[in-house]
Amino acid sequence: MALGLLAWWSLPVASSAPNRIVPGDAVYAWQVAGPAMAVLASLPMALAGWVARQPDPGWRSLGLVLLALLGLPLWLVLCVHQLVDPQLPQARLGIGAGSWCTLFVLLLALLDLRTRQRWPAGLYIACLCVPLVVTALCLPLGLDRLALWQEYRGRADDFWLAVGEHLLLVGATVALSLALGAALALLMRRLPALQRAGFGVLNFMQTIPSLALFGLLLGPLAWAAQRFPWLDQLGISGIGWAPALVALVTYSLLPMVRNTFVALEGVDRGVIEAARGMGMSRGQMFWQVRLPLALPVLLEGVRITTVQAIGLTAVAALIGAGGLGRFIFQGLGQAAMDLVLLGALPILVMAMLADGVLGNLSRRLGRGVTR
Amino acid sequence: MIELIHITKRFDHTVAVDDVSLKIDGGEFCCLVGTSGCGKSTTLKMINRLIEHSEGEIHIDQKPIRSFREDVLRRRIGYAIQSTGLFPHWTVARNIGLVPRLLKWPKSRIDTRVEELMSLLGLSMADYADKYPDQLSGGQAQRVGVARALAADPDILLMDEPFGALDPITRETLQLELRDLQARLGKTIVFVTHDMDEALRLADRLVVMHEGRIVQQGHPLQLLREPANDFVASLLGGEDRGLKEAALLPVSERMVPLGAGGVARERIDQTASLREALSVMLWRRVERLAVVDDDDIPIGELNFRRLVGARVND
């Protein structure tokens, strides 16, 4: 909380600019509507910090953090009214480092509360949703002047297309590498000779920088597309989604194979011996014993792969595979940080969501197994 | 009835079991004992084909075991191991019902059977049926393991050091219960252990193995009294054999009718072992004990000379 207050007071909370090309002027908290307003705005945070030191913070702490979270969009509305010239349609407000840090600290506080207080998960999800809804409601009140929103409005269709592309590529990667990885892991279990060679190759693949791998695939795939026209018709060529998918699957295979293999091998020998001794057939043993017991670790592999693929897909935009990475590279090219954010923020959210959901699923399944 | 006829097992170049012949009658409690690596576990696992024998033949009820399909054979034979091998993702009830389910019994029959077994092993349905294995203590888990082995009512039960990981008190309780269970159900049990007291307590037939061969087999008392060689003698406890034998004999064996000397002050139950009687004498520093029946009524007496088995005219 002290950190949040420090950021609030020391870093620019916002920046305003007449259009997207001119870099914005940094604005500090006390410059928005006078020092008194800034003190008032930072009150919930200060109180939350103070309450957290009390013997039983619990509900009061949660309430204050929530209040601060709700205050943030309102504060930004205030910023817009004070700083942005309504006469200029292109004028915009950038969210400054101070505000981002504050948001970050508040989310951290929520996470901290989550680990300390065993309230139902739904409560925390609600705590995250309420500020989002308030932010959405504030849009017509002036938040539409936020640079981020302006960037979005300019290319809303394109944005959702990119999100779709991104999700499709990640989904295809995870599905393919799960199928391939599982097959490979099963094969390795059958043929121990394959184990060392297999893991060696996969480890090596992991060390190739992603950009280099994308580049390396350019040649062979372009050649293949030229050689076999039907590949070309399918859309497979040196650039585009095909090499991206190949590269992404290549990277995803190692965590997938490793986790699947370890998961299946890690099942207690005694359990397997008993299953055999009781007269279960091979198929029964695999489907009823080995697989369910391996599932939590296996899902952990899926989780790692998914999060990794969400991030790597951003890089894949460089070879024309589309996805949210496009905005990042466009933004970098035009020195428009807000456009970069428009690409990066959804990737962040996707990764966190995938991490949370799959991690939760794995834990839930693991409950019966390793309690 | 299980019959092993000149069984040999080779792993690559080492011989684990060497020309073993053994006949276990129906309803017999057979303990395989020996130092680790003597081939007792291998011998056990060859009976349900978890390990295939290299030479010789194994018959169950006069039929060679290779005439059955592996899984069909195993479903007919109960199997319990030291680590229990309970499926951690299944409840106790589901674990016990495993083999009946493999045999495709109707659900109602499985439920009845599970209930029956749980009460047989002293696990209350309400408390344990829906528990998961990791919520059980070692002793409870092993009870479930035994219940699961008995589920499809097999004639034969193979047990590989089932009580090896339990604390001494729990172990003894379970040993006594198993002994009791076997007497009631008349199962043929093949039991591997390296705990000699356990083997002596449980076995009708004790089979001593060493380096893949059977060194001696017979009733525990016979082996204690006439060990075939020094190895058997030392395995059975060396100088402690006298106490081990005393532990197998009940007080009633050496009891004499109540004499004229009056009833002795210290008492012992007629079903207690001679070893316990000796312990009481040592502890209380007396030479005479009154032997009492279940209702604590004196029915005879045991004196030190009789206890040690000295001949009357000595």
Would you write up a description of this structure?
The complex is a heterodimer of chains A (371) and B (314). With 371 residues, chain A is mostly helical. Chain A has two domains: 2-148, no CATH class; 156-366, MetI-like (MetI-like fold), CATH 1.10.3720. Chain A is 77% helix and 3% strand. Chain A has 16 helices and three strands. Chain A has a three-stranded antiparallel sheet. The two termini of chain A are 35 Å apart. The mean pLDDT of chain A is 77. With 314 residues, chain B is of the alpha/beta class. Chain B has two domains: 2-244, 3-Layer(aba) Sandwich (Rossmann fold), CATH 3.40.50.300; 249-307, Alpha-Beta Complex (CBS domain Like), CATH 3.90.1280. Helices cover 37% and strands 24% of the residues of chain B. Chain B has 14 helices and 13 strands. Chain B has helices at 40-47, 70-75, 92-96, 98-102, 107-120, 125-128, 138-150, 168-185, 196-202, 220-225, 230-235, 241-248, 274-284, 304-307; strands spanning 2-11, 14-24, 29-33, 55-60, 63-64, 77-81, 156-160, 188-192, 205-210, 213-218, 267-269, 288-292, 298-303. In chain B, the strands form three sheets. Chain B has a six-stranded mixed sheet, sandwiched between helices. In chain B, strands 2-1-4-5 form a four-stranded antiparallel sheet, with helices on one face. In chain B, a hairpin with a 2-residue loop joins strand 1 (2-11) and strand 2 (14-24). Chain B is globular and about 70 Å long. The model of chain B has no long low-confidence stretch (mean pLDDT 90). Classes of the chains: A mainly alpha (371), B alpha/beta (314). Chain A binds chain B through residues 268-281, 284, 289, 292-293, 368-371, and chain B through 48, 50, 70-76, 79, 81-89, 98-99, 102, 132, 134-135, 145, 148, 158.
